[in-house]
TrEMBL record, chain A:
Encoding gene, per UniProt annotation: TECR
Record's protein name: Trans-2,3-enoyl-CoA reductase
The organism's taxonomic lineage, starting at the top: Eukaryota, Metazoa, Chordata, Craniata, Vertebrata
UniProtKB/TrEMBL annotation, chain B:
Coiled coil: none
Function according to Swiss-Prot or TrEMBL: Catalyzes the third of the four reactions of the long-chain fatty acids elongation cycle. This endoplasmic reticulum-bound enzymatic process, allows the addition of two carbons to the chain of long- and very long-chain fatty acids/VLCFAs per cycle. This enzyme catalyzes the dehydration of the 3-hydroxyacyl-CoA intermediate into trans-2,3-enoyl-CoA, within each cycle of fatty acid elongation. Thereby, it participates to the production of VLCFAs of different chain lengths that are involved in multiple biological processes as precursors of membrane lipids and lipid mediators.
EC number: 4.2.1.134
A molecular function GO annotation: very-long-chain (3R)-3-hydroxyacyl-CoA dehydratase activity
One annotated GO biological process: sphingolipid biosynthetic process
UniProt entry tagged with the keyword Ribonucleoprotein: no
Localization terms from the record: Endoplasmic reticulum membrane; Membrane
Predominant location: endoplasmic reticulum
Biological classification of the source: Eukaryota, Metazoa, Chordata, Craniata, Vertebrata
Protein name in UniProt: Very-long-chain (3R)-3-hydroxyacyl-CoA dehydratase
């Protein structure tokens, strides 16, 4: 049977109610799911493509935007099931919001704006050097993240569900406020081992920030602009990327390292707790990513662990 | 909340057939239950817990009869209450190792809130131990747990009397609000003493640049009852409708 000459038909049913939502006549066999989604939006404008999940089976996996109609196991009329993913928001928007918050919030505490600490401390400055250093580090960290979001990262998914932005912002903004409150407090106690401790911590922080950035650049170079291809990342000439030999997600490794550095620098328990929670979440993500690498690539380097060399 | 969560959250603690926990309504397709060894262990566990809470119930009645009043009965059952309620922590383990099909998170939440009330409030703030609110939640918990653990015991043995099922899904209507009231009143009574003693609180300045105000924390806990209690309560009501109306069909399979 040759479908190349024949135009296909597509019917779209609601995955839950099986109600016929749309019937598309004269669809090119080489049409992609993305194109079908665009056609569907014409008849149902409230369901823009990003919130459409189309699948072959009502309970099955979503079809990818790149999938071609002709290559799917369907008859002359393709039956696709539609599920509404809910309001979507772009990853870029989420990242910018969740990172701009901590940057701004921390500075509110650093400058001791009124109503946070007692009135006699309004707009005063800490007498501890480490407090100023901490502000620079924290701000640098989030400025770096904002710039990476705008210029470095290449996202495989365009959007995520809207409710995520509330969840994520609560987490980032909440912890930023909690940490900043103590570090910039008039009764802040500097680290026990003084300048030595701060210097060591700063070194750890800077190395890990450079490392994290190097990994982000290496990952970006793996994927050409506009594509969604996935390849195994390998170490490059940059020594910071050599961590790829031991770990699938060195960006997370470096990120945890940065926060450990910051915790040692400030000797502040809330920072340590934030690092712990972040570490837990990143470990979950790293394990997932590691698992999908293993599934997708037969020749995946066996020495690598998800996030901590040899251990985790 | 600790009272309600106990009935609402846990589906399991065993139960091969006739499992009418917080979830499955009619399952003609029997799920793979725990193995024979696990089942035996769970039966023993649930029997022991039922017995334990019966001891507490009897202890309350005897103390009431001996004293002639219902005030300050806490002291007569303090030890078994602490022992058996704390023992419920095992239920988290049961979920974690998979012999009970409930969510670890939900069960942890439920058991921890009970343990919190017993140790971090009632035990820690001696002045509230003579409050009547303590009796209120102890009675609510005692009746709830006797029914709940016997429910699981019978379910595991595939021989659940309708009376137990009915009791589990009906008495909560009164016991739940009763328990919640007792809990809230007890926490509220503890507040001034916590404030006075600076209990479990740490203030600045200190080496780790951290502070914790237990008084404020308790207030937050009390506020959290507002969103949580209605959700759990209406979930149980929903479950009740589903499970008690399905009994007609289930009786055929018994």
């Amino acid at each position: 049977l040759h479908f190349k000459e024949l135009l296909g038909k597509v019917e779209i049913l609601d995955a839950k109610t099986r109600e016929k939502l749309c019937f598309l006549d004269k669809v090119e066999p080489q049409a992609t799911i993305a194109e079908i989604k665009n056609l569907f939006t014409k008849t149902h404008p409230q369901w823009y493509p990003a919130r459409q999940s189309l699948r072959l089976d009502p309970k099955g996996k979503s079809l990818k935007d790149e999938d071609v109609l002709q290559k799917l196991p369907v008859g002359t009329t393709a039956t696709l099931y539609f599920r509404d993913l809910g309001a979507q928001i772009s990853w870029v928007t989420v990242f910018l919001t969740e990172y701009a918050g901590p940057l701004f919030i921390y500075l509110l505490f650093y400058f001791r704006v009124p109503f946070i600490y007692g009135h006699k401390y309004d707009f005063t400055s800490s007498r501890h050097t480490v407090v100023h250093l901490a502000c620079i580090c924290h701000s640098f960290h989030y400025i770096k993240r904002l710039l990476e979001t705008l210029f470095v990262h290449r996202f495989s998914h365009g959007t995520m569900p809207l409710r995520n932005i509330f969840k994520n912002c609560t987490y980032y903004w909440g912890f930023a406020a909690w940490m900043a409150y103590y570090i910039n407090h008039p009764l802040y106690t500097p680290p026990t081992y003084g300048a030595q401790q701060v210097k060591l911590a700063l070194a750890i922080f800077v190395i890990c920030q450079l490392g994290n950035f190097s990994i982000h650049m290496a990952l970006r170079d793996l994927r050409p602009a506009g594509s969604k291809t996935r390849k195994i990342p390998y170490p490059t000439k940059n020594p910071f990327t050599w961590l790829f030999l031991l770990v699938s997600c060195p960006n997370y490794t470096y990120e945890v390292g940065s926060w450990i550095g910051f915790a040692i620098m400030t000797q502040c328990l809330p920072v340590a707790l934030f690092s712990l929670v972040g570490f837990t979440q990143m470990t979950i993500w790293a394990k997932g990513k590691h698992r999908s690498y293993l599934k997708e690539f037969r020749d995946y380097p066996p020495l690598r662990m998800p996030i901590i060399p040899f251990l985790l | 909340m600790a009272a309600a969560a106990a009935t609402a959250a846990s589906k399991g603690n065993g139960g091969g057939g006739g499992r009418a926990g917080a979830g499955e309504a009619s399952s003609s397709r029997k799920k793979k239950g725990p193995g024979p060894l696990a089942t035996a262990y769970l039966v023993i566990y649930n029997v022991v817990m039922t017995a334990g809470w019966l001891v507490i119930a009897v202890g309350l009645v005897r103390a009431y009869l001996a004293k002639g009043s219902y005030h300050s009965l806490y002291y007569s059952i303090e030890k078994p209450l602490k022992f058996f309620q704390t023992g419920a922590l095992l239920e988290i383990l049961h979920c974690a190792i998979g012999i009970v099909p409930s969510s670890v998170v939900l069960t942890s939440f439920q058991v921890m809130s009970r343990v919190f009330l017993i140790w971090a409030v009632t035990h820690s703030v001696k002045e509230v131990q003579s409050e009547d609110s303590v009796l209120l939640f102890v009675i609510a918990w005692t009746i709830t747990e006797i029914i709940r653990y016997s429910f699981y015991t019978f379910s595991l043995l595939n021989h659940l009397p309708y009376l137990i099922k009915w009791a589990r899904y009906t008495l909560f209507i009164v016991l739940y609000p009763m328990g919640v009231s007792g809990e809230l009143l007890t926490i509220y009574a503890a507040l001034p003493f916590v404030r006075q003693a600076g209990l479990y609180s740490i203030s600045l300045p200190n080496k780790y640049n951290f502070s914790f105000d237990y008084y404020a924390f308790l207030i937050l806990i009390m506020i959290s009852y507002i969103p949580i209690f209605p959700q759990l309560y209406f979930h149980m009501i929903h479950q009740r409708r589903k499970i008690l109306s399905h009994t007609e069909e289930h009786k055929k399979f018994e």
